[in-house]
Write a structure and sequence with these properties.
The complex is a heterodimer.
Chain A (H helix, E strand, L loop, with lengths): L2 H4 L3 H10 L11 H29 L14 H27 L12 H28 L9 H29 L10 H21 L31 H4 L12 E5 L2 E5 L1 H6 L2 E9 L5 E10 H8 L6 E6 L8 E4 L1 H4 L5 E6 L2 E2 L9 E3 L12 E7 L1
Parallel strand pairs in A: 1-10
Antiparallel strand pairs in A: 1-2, 3-4, 4-7, 5-6, 5-10, 7-8, 7-9
Chain B lengths: L2 H25 L2 H34 L7 E3 L8 E3 L3 H30 L11 H30 L1
Antiparallel strand pairs in B: 1-2
Helix pairs in contact in B: 3-4
């Protein structure tokens, strides 16, 4: 429909009204809308992918990998952004699929082998994207309803999505370029309303959930799955002492921290740890689920304990917990974390003795690491090859 | 557009996607692979053959075809390409609010269900999300009625 031919005439207005019932010429479903929504969704997916890779490799590093420990908020930021971008992708993905939905019924469905390939890849992209966002959202609500491993699936689907998205962009490149900039079109009120709805929803979801990761939005945290600073000693908890089954072992007066390296080992009581030089710092706990809260920690620097045991702090170490149930009972940290001044064996939190649910008698707190690696109720620290 | 460039991008994309499939096929047990396949298929079926048809019906019922006639082709001098006929701005606002509230609900309703299923400790899902969502809808409905009411009064006064 061109501007000139349709300007003003009653006939054309009638034609517009009729055509709105027929999807293919619906401007909401035109290529321009697909490009406007698609590039934002592509950006959100790219952000999710990069921040997701960062989080993945922090947890499962390749042997040569070293990670930044500053700023101490780095993981709080990257994972908060990961979850926020994922949540904002929900309306964007639904909108993107809405704009192209009639093309699902293109006739003839397949015109060539290349067309078959393109459509097959779109099928993969759509399916993987829908599931990726579904399980991502369910995961932050602790609704583990799927018959597969969340992390492995979320990670594998991410590669599937990025790959099929790249191919999709390559297939559609001429059309994307053609519609990258707005061109005057006669009737686009519906399109504007559609886009306004989508962006309003995405913005509102961001604004009403971001408060779980930053104090800035805490006042309007209507829908965040966590509240900033809410929990024992002002900090949310994922696994409680009861859930980890450490209620008796963690308060046992016989508790000792075993530190061992090649040919050396030493045991520390809690009082001995308290007698060592104490470090205090404000370091956030930042969960893979995107929530985080900054807290004031006090304890012994890990490097101090390693040095006093006769271990080079520039070592790769494994920390083990007293916990007998659940994942993440141990964590491994590379030398960049083990030797960092702010990697603490924390004994106090926000001015009080560490709460049992936060890892009493002692826990690890290190800058820039996912919360699942901030091992609680620690019992041994050992050097690994 | 350079065909060689696009072809290589497609091939690189297929390579990257294949790596994801490789991870699934090599690291997942058969049960998990079957479970994942079912969930992938279910996601598409629920979206394409349940969600979209239902939304299409609701949209047609709620917004109908008349919305298109809200815009008149722009006059020669107008840069925006269309000009709003009286009342359309109000309808634009109300439609935007209603659609946005539906999309927000898509994210929040599973949260309410998850909370209903029970949580492992009180710091998980600490909010009253059903309550908050009701307030959001109350705000949206109130705003819609206000805007439409103002529109009615304005139309009366014009007459």
């Amino acid at each position: 429909m061109t501007t000139d031919s349709s300007r003003g005439s009653r006939f054309d207005r009638a034609r517009i009204a009729v055509s709105s019932t027929l999807a293919p010429s619906d401007p909401v479903r035109g290529p321009r809308t697909a490009v406007v929504v698609g590039r934002l969704l592509g950006l959100a997916f790219a952000v999710c992918f990069v921040t997701g890779l960062f989080s993945h490799f922090l947890q499962d590093p390749l042997s040569w990998m070293r990670f930044p420990t500053r700023p101490v908020t780095i993981y709080q930021i990257t994972q908060g952004v990961h979850v926020a971008a994922g949540l904002a992708s929900v309306p964007l993905l639904l909108a993107k699929l809405w704009t192209v939905f009639p093309r699902l019924f293109t006739w003839p469905p397949i015109t060539s082998w290349v067309h078959l390939l393109e459509r097959a890849l779109i099928g993969v992209l759509v399916s993987a994207s829908l599931l990726e966002l579904t399980i991502g959202v369910m995961n932050i609500y602790h609704w583990y309803g799927w018959p597969f491993s969340f992390r492995s699936t979320h990670y594998a689907l991410a590669w599937v999505i990025v790959g099929s998205l790249l191919a999709h962009i390559a297939f559609q490149l001429p059309r994307i370029i053609e519609h990258w900039r707005v061109r005057p079109s006669t009737v686009e009120l519906d399109r504007r309303i559609f886009l306004a709805s989508i962006f309003t929803a995405a913005g509102a979801i961001l604004a009403t959930t971001a408060g779980q990761s930053t104090k800035l939005f805490a006042g309007i945290n209507l829908f965040g799955p966590r509240r900033y600073g809410e929990g024992p000693q002002g900090l949310p908890v994922n696994r409680t002492a009861a859930a980890a089954e450490v209620l008796t072992t963690a308060v046992d007066p016989e508790w000792r921290l075993d530190v061992s390296g090649p040919g050396v080992s030493r045991r520390f009581t809690r009082d001995e740890l308290l007698a060592l030089p104490q470090t205090q710092a404000v370091i956030p706990i930042a969960c893979v689920e995107g929530w985080s809260t900054a807290a004031w920690w006090r304890g012994v620097a890990l490097r101090e304990v390693l040095s006093r045991t006769g271990i080079d702090p520039n070592s790769r170490i494994r920390v083990s917990s007293l916990q007998t149930r659940g994942g993440y009972a141990t964590s491994v940290m590379g030398p960049e974390f083990a030797s960092d001044d702010l990697t603490l064996i924390a004994l106090e939190l926000n001015g009080e003795v560490l709460d049992l649910d936060h890892g009493y008698p002692a826990r690890i707190i290190a800058p820039g690491r996912p919360g699942v690696l901030q091992t609680k109720w620690i019992s041994t620290i050992e050097v690994i090859a | 557009m350079n065909v060689a460039l696009r072809t290589s991008l497609v091939l690189i994309g297929i390579g990257i996607a294949s790596y994801g499939a490789f991870l699934v096929l090599t690291r997942f047990g058969l049960d998990q692979i079957i479970g994942l396949a079912i969930w992938l298929a279910a996601a598409v079926v629920l979206h394409d053959f349940v969600l979209v048809p239902v939304v299409t019906l609701i949209a047609r019922f709620a917004f109908g075809q008349k919305t298109r006639s809200l815009a008149e082709p722009g006059s020669a001098g107008s840069g925006s390409g269309f000009r709003l006929i009286p009342g359309s701005r109000r309808l634009a606002i109300t439609r935007t609010l209603l659609v946005a509230a539906c999309l927000i609900s898509v994210v929040v309703v599973p949260e309410i269900v998850a909370l209903g299923r029970g949580v492992a400790n009180p710091t998980i899902l600490p909010g009253d999300y059903a309550h908050n969502l009701l307030w959001l809808w109350a705000f949206v409905v109130a705003a819609v009625f206000t805007v439409l009411g103002v529109g009615l009064i304005a139309a009366r006064l014009r007459r």
